[in-house]
Amino acid sequence: MNMQSDIIILGDWGTSVCRLYLCRFHQQELTVLARTKGMGIKYINNPESRFFELCQPWIELYGNVPVFLIGAVGSDTGWKQTSYVPCPTDKNNLLALSKSFSARGLNITILPGVSCQNRHHLPDIMRGEETQVFGFLSQVLNASDKRLICLPGTHTKWALCEGESIASFVTSPVGELYEVLSQHSVLLSPASVPSWCKSSFTNGLRVGMHQSSNLLHTLFATRAYQIIDKRTNAEAAGYLSGLLIGSDVKAAMQDFDIFSHVAVIGSDHICGLYVEALEYMGISTEHFSNEDATLLGLQTLASVKWRDLAANTPSEQS
Description:
Nucleotidyltransferase, domain 5, six-stranded mixed sheet, 39% helix
């Protein structure tokens, strides 16, 4: 079957999960035709084979369509390694360092990550979140403003944006730290991880955000509460989650103290926890879906390069 010039495969292939979208891209409008999900880069050995396993039904239906990918798929453990674009950067700089190659007749483009010297004069990196940031910025009414964007997750990002550029950012590995402490320490029993207590989360949040609290001096209370106050594992898990998120939000607001409004991009659950923490500190918020931000960002970036993608797509052999 011949290549359909208005069909494209977009993907956010991260460390933990792969999300692929079959889309129709017509007159600058993006329509998602189908979705599929697979394992993240850290769980597989051959990204190319896994990609074609996931997309084979689409390729059989539409032929050799262009592919546009972001995330850990471009890391040193991914499919093809791409570099990091230093901040400040915009979408044009990102596209300039993208890597295009041919695989089994398909033209694949993988976007680079972004790096910076953060506000603590330390190196920092991101892959994938920058596309969500550009997606969010593409739909704001006044793109010339400075704004702060929070992207909660395994490695939470706080991105400072100026106009349509990412000026700098800072990473806090909140999700990863919670996973390590809950599964590989005495603070929590692994059996308690799937559920936790909301009121205990709020308690931990307030302890973490207290101006005089120090995270290292408050972590072990997770264990002590269970021994002395006979709190359940679910209560302890809630306290630990709140403590980590509260400490993260407190530190971010100290770093970016000029902002009274924060855009939060991510899933409903994790964003709800960050919104609670921010609003407790008197910061107004807006929540934007991570899938919507990803697709908007991919649409924004792919539209710039669309003609090159279509022109360089190999024709299917008869």
